[in-house]
Amino acid sequence: MGNRMLALDNILSATFFFVGKWTPGLKRNQARDVLRFLVCRLYDQGRGRLMLAEVTLAQTTLARKLGLSRQWVGILIGRLQEAGWLECHAPILDGGMRGSTIFRVGRQLKCVLIKLVKVRPGKTPRKSDAQPRWHFSPSKREKEQEKILKREQEPPSPALLRKIPLLGIWITRGEIGNEKGSRVA
């Protein structure tokens, strides 16, 4: 898709324009709400790069978030998939039941994204944004790394120091060394 990252509002605007143009049956339909929600989730999951993004989501969860019934969400997803806006499949689990649905960008949405990338960028604003970087919600791996870093920064518990007295001596030596170093400097 090139080096240029597309803004979510541009993607949504173009998507809704072309949904009405290419698939008139979905123009004034709740399928657009489902598509909007999934595009936002794919954008967040893919860190702005929709072409390779995947979202795993149960249809019941999707229905609850949108305030629709699960059966109706299943019908709407089927219409979006039939029209080529989404690709989705639900893997079959051991018990014969289907698991959570895995959503990807469909061929129609890929066409919209390619059209947006090919468009010349507009004028750059004179004033820069207050926050020039996008802040995505942290991924599962980033959350785990933050937890590990936080645990490493915390001092050991008193119970651990009782079990390993040498560790307590070593830590107090480090604190004394830091105090001496700060007096000298």
Verbal overview:
The chain is mainly alpha-helical. 56% of the residues lie in helices and 6% in strands. A three-stranded antiparallel sheet has the order 1-3-2.
Q: Unreliable segments (pLDDT under 50, ≥5 consecutive)?
A: none
Decide which structural class fits the backbone.
Answer: mainly alpha
The tally of structural domains comes to 2
State the strand order across the main sheet: 1-3-2
**Rg from alpha-carbon coordinates:** 25 Å
CATH superfamily of the largest domain: Winged helix-like DNA-binding domain superfamily/Winged helix DNA-binding domain
Summarize the topology.
Blueprint: H1 8-22, H2 31-45, E1 55-57, H3 59-66, H4 70-83, E2 86-89, E3 101-105, H5 107-118, H6 140-153, H7 158-163, H8 165-184
Helix pairs in contact: 1-2, 1-5, 3-4
Short summary:
The chain is mainly alpha-helical. It has helices at 8-22, 31-45, 59-66, 70-83, 107-118, 140-153, 158-163, 165-184; strands spanning 55-57, 86-89, 101-105.
Keywords:
3 strands; Arc Repressor Mutant, subunit A; 185 residues; mainly alpha; elongated; 2 domains; three-stranded antiparallel beta sheet; single chain
